[in-house]
């Protein structure tokens, strides 16, 4: 597992040993970021450059670090496991991205409430919970009813193809879904609040 491109291209990333951690495969990550880099938001902005990233269930920090390498401004990594957090910190140091990275320990779902109450917002959010644990819709509901996702923010959810996911929300708009074997990656947009302009450019 490695950082694919950007300023930290080629950096090898560690994986926690002895834990049920399922890092995003390089081929899935490469496809995911190709989609992100080719999206043009309704307001004309791009996704990655200058993004404020939230990496939930961060595991190894794989996704947030890839975003930082490709031009994101800052990333917050959240995981409940001390072992995972130690690996994330090692990977941040290996990639030399520590000035733009922050690591917090906590339950990823509960941490959303804390972030919402503190007023923190993010423009690019990665959600990669344990498969088939009925967490995805709970998390999406929190984003749908909070302001953690900024206007024109993107939420990228990695989940099992066997897990039912709600695609109809009051605020969030599903814009794309891709399948890679047993894995689905679903992209949601937080439209500018109070508008209905939802067109998305890209391939």
TrEMBL record:
One GO biological process term: rRNA methylation
Domain of life: Bacteria
Native source species: Sporomusa malonica
UniProt protein name: 16S rRNA (Guanine(966)-N(2))-methyltransferase RsmD
Keyword vocabulary terms for this entry: Methyltransferase, Transferase
Signal peptide: none
GO molecular function, one term: nucleic acid binding
Key word NAD present: no
Record keyword Coiled coil present: no
InterPro entries found in the cross-reference section: DNA_methylase_N6_adenine_CS (IPR002052), RNA_MeTrfase_RsmD (IPR004398), SAM-dependent_MTases_sf (IPR029063)
Classification via Pfam families: Cons_hypoth95
SUPFAM superfamilies: S-adenosyl-L-methionine-dependent methyltransferases
PROSITE patterns registered for this protein in UniProt: N6_MTASE (PS00092)
Organism taxonomic ancestry: Bacteria, Bacillati, Bacillota, Negativicutes, Selenomonadales
């Amino acid at each position: 597992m490695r950082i694919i491109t950007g300023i930290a291209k080629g950096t090898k990333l560690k994986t926690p040993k002895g834990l049920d951690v399922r890092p995003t495969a390089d081929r899935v990550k490469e496809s995911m970021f190709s989609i992100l880099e080719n999206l043009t938001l309704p307001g004309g902005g791009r996704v990655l450059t200058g993004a404020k990233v939230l990496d939930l269930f961060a595991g190894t920090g794989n996704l947030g670090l890839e975003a930082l390498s490709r031009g994101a401004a800052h990333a917050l990594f959240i995981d409940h496991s001390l072992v995972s957090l130690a690996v994330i910190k090692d990977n941040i140091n290996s990639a030399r991205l520590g000035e733009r990275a922050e690591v917090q320990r906590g339950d990823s779902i509960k941490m959303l409430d804390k972030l919402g109450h503190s007023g923190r917002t993010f423009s690019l959010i990665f959600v990669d919970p344990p498969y088939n644990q009925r967490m995805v819709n709970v998390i999406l509901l929190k984003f749908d009813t909070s302001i953690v996702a900024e206007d024109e923010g993107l939420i990228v959810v990695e989940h099992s193809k066997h897990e039912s996911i709600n695609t109809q929300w009051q605020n969030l708009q599903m814009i794309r879904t891709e399948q890679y074997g047993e894995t689905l990656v679903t992209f949601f947009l937080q439209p500018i609040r109070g508008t209905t302009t939802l067109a998305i450019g890209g391939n």
